[in-house]
Specification:
Largest sheet: 22 strands, antiparallel
Order of helices and strands: EHHEEEEEEEEEEEEEEEEEEEEEEE
Number of strands: 24
Length: about 425
C-alpha cells in the first residue's frame, strides 16, 4: 500500500543520566527526550502522515515539562498547478489531540485543527524581469484557551485554562520582484576557466501577515501556535559570478563568487528595526547587511556576513567562516563578533578552529576543535579525538575541556573505548574532573 512506519522510543532512569554517563558534548548537555511513532504515505504531490509524539524537557528544579500529540493526522498538498491557469495551490492541514503538562496549574488535554491554503501566481514579463505573488491564510481552532489578566477568577479551579474554545484566521500576502537582470559572458579560454558569467540583479520582497488580537489566549504547544504579524519589505542587490571549467570534462558552470547587499524596512508605524538602548533613537529601516561568498575551488569556501548599524555608524555584527580540503584532510575556521552599537562595546568575540586529519589512510584519524573567547582571553572549549580502526576492531581516545563562568570553573572529560566489528562497544571507560579557581 506504500505506507512507511517508524517507531522511536527514548527514556532514561532519571534526570542525571546524561551528566553521569554521556561524554559526548552534545548529549552531555541534553535536557530533553523525544519519542515518536509515525505512519506516512506519499503519492504524487500529496502526502498523509499519522503521528504519535512525546517530548519531555527536564528543568533545573527537577520538574518535567511534557508535551504529547495523541495523535496528529496531517494532509499536505505540494505546489500544484490548477488546470491551465497560471495559479499554483499549496495546502497544509492537520488535526491534533494535544496533552500539555507544564506545571501544576498548566495541564490540559484539548484538540487543535489547522488549515493553511496558499495560492501562488508567478509571472515572467520578460527574460530579465519576473514577479511572484503569494496569498493565503491560516485557519486554526483550539478546543481550549488561556485566561488573561482581567478575566474573572474561577472559584473552583486555579487552572490557567478557561474551558472555552478559540478560533484564529490569519490572512497573509507576499510578493517578489526580480530584475531587471543584467548579465555578460566573458570568454577566457584559460587553463582553469573557459568562460565567466557576471549577473547583476535587484530584488524586492514584501510580506504581510495580519496580527491576532487575542494572542495571549493561545495555549503554546509548537510553531503552529505562534504566528507573528509582519509588514516588512526587503530590498537587495545581488552580484553573482559563475565560471565554467576548462576542458571537455570540466562539467557545467558553478558559482564561484557572490556579493549581496540587502536591507529591511518596516511598514508598521509601531515596529522599528533599529533602536537604541534608551529608545531615543529608532528607525523603520533595518541595518544594511553585506553577504559575501567566495568558492574558488570545490574544496575551498569562504563566507562573510557584515551588519552595519546606521543609528550609531558602527558595525554591530560580523560572522566569517572558511573551510579547506587537502586530499582527505579538512580544515575549518570561524570568527564571530557582536558589538553593542550604542557605545561600541564588544559583546561577543569568538574564534573556532577545527580539523579532521587522516594520519594513516583507513587506519588512524585525528579530529580536533578549539573555541577561543577573545573577550575573556581563554580557550572556552576544546575537544580532541584519536581513532584507530583495524579490520575487526577499533580504538577511540577522547579528551574534552570546557571552561565556564569566565574561566572560573573547568570541566575535563576523558574516554577510552574499544569497538568490535559487528558486535559493538566492547569496552568503554569514561572519566572526568571539575576544578574551580
Amino acid at each position: 500500500m506504500g505506507f512507511r512506519g517508524v517507531i522511536r522510543y527514548d527514556d532514561v532512569s532519571d534526570f542525571d543520566y546524561f551528566q553521569d554517563f554521556e561524554r559526548n558534548a552534545d548529549r552531555h548537555a541534553k535536557r530533553a527526550l523525544h519519542s515518536n511513532a509515525f505512519l506516512t504515505k506519499n503519492w504524487g504531490r500529496q502526502s498523509f502522515n499519522f503521528l504519535v509524539d512525546q517530548r519531555e524537557t527536564f528543568l533545573r528544579d527537577n520538574s518535567t515539562v511534557s508535551l504529547r500529540q495523541m495523535p496528529e493526522v496531517e494532509y499536505r498538498l505540494r505546489s500544484t498547478q490548477l488546470r491551465d491557469l497560471p495559479l499554483y495551490l499549496q495546502l497544509n492541514s492537520a488535526f491534533h489531540f494535544l496533552d500539555v503538562d507544564r506545571r501544576e496549574n498548566y495541564n490540559d488535554s484539548y484538540m487543535r485543527a489547522n488549515f493553511a491554503p496558499r495560492l501562488t501566481f508567478p509571472y515572467r514579463a520578460f527574460p530579465w524581469l519576473s514577479f511572484s505573488v503569494d496569498a493565503g491564510a491560516v485557519f486554526t481552532f483550539w478546543g481550549d484557551s488561556l485566561r488573561v489578566s482581567g478575566d474573572e477568577p474561577d472559584p473552583e479551579s486555579d487552572s490557567v485554562f478557561r474551558s472555552e474554545s478559540l478560533s484564529r484566521i490569519t490572512p497573509s500576502i507576499s510578493g517578489e520582484a526580480v530584475g531587471p537582470s543584467f548579465s555578460r559572458i566573458f570568454d577566457l579560454n584559460g587553463k582553469t576557466w573557459s568562460k565567466l558569467k557576471h549577473i547583476m540583479e535587484p530584488r524586492f520582497n514584501y510580506a504581510f501577515v495580519d496580527e491576532f488580537d487575542e494572542e495571549d489566549r493561545i495555549p503554546r504547544f509548537d510553531e503552529l501556535d505562534s504566528i507573528r504579524g509582519a509588514n516588512i519589505g526587503r530590498m537587495a542587490f545581488i552580484n553573482r559570478l559563475l565560471a565554467k571549467p576548462a576542458g571537455e570534462g570540466g562539467g557545467g558552470s558553478r558559482e564561484i563568487m557572490s556579493v549581496e547587499i540587502f536591507r529591511l524596512y518596516s511598514f508598521d508605524d509601531d515596529r522599528f528595526l533599529q533602536r537604541s538602548s534608551d529608545g531615543e533613537k529608532q528607525s523603520h529601516f533595518g541595518p544594511p547587511t553585506l553577504l559575501f561568498r567566495y568558492n574558488p575551488t570545490r574544496q575551498t569556501t569562504f563566507r562573510n556576513a557584515l551588519r552595519f548599524n546606521t543609528l550609531f555608524g558602527r558595525i554591530e555584527s560580523s560572522a566569517t567562516s572558511g573551510s579547506f580540503e587537502a586530499g582527505p584532510h579538512r580544515f575549518g575556521v570561524r570568527w564571530t563578533a557582536r558589538i553593542r552599537p550604542d557605545d561600541g562595546m564588544t559583546r561577543t568575540n569568538q574564534f573556532r578552529v577545527s580539523s579532521d586529519l587522516i594520519l594513516i589512510p583507513r587506519r588512524l584519524r585525528l579530529i580536533s576543535s578549539v573555541n577561543f573567547d577573545a573577550n575573556d582571553s581563554l580557550v572556552q572549549l576544546q575537544r580532541h579525538i584519536l581513532e584507530y580502526n583495524a579490520n575487526c576492531w577499533g580504538v577511540r581516545l577522547e579528551f574534552g575541556e570546557f571552561k565556564r563562568r569566565g574561566g572560573q570553573q573547568t570541566d575535563r572529560e576523558f574516554r577510552f573505548s574499544i569497538n568490535l566489528k559487528n558486535v559493538g562497544t566492547f569496552l568503554d571507560l569514561t572519566g572526568g574532573e571539575s576544578s574551580s579557581l
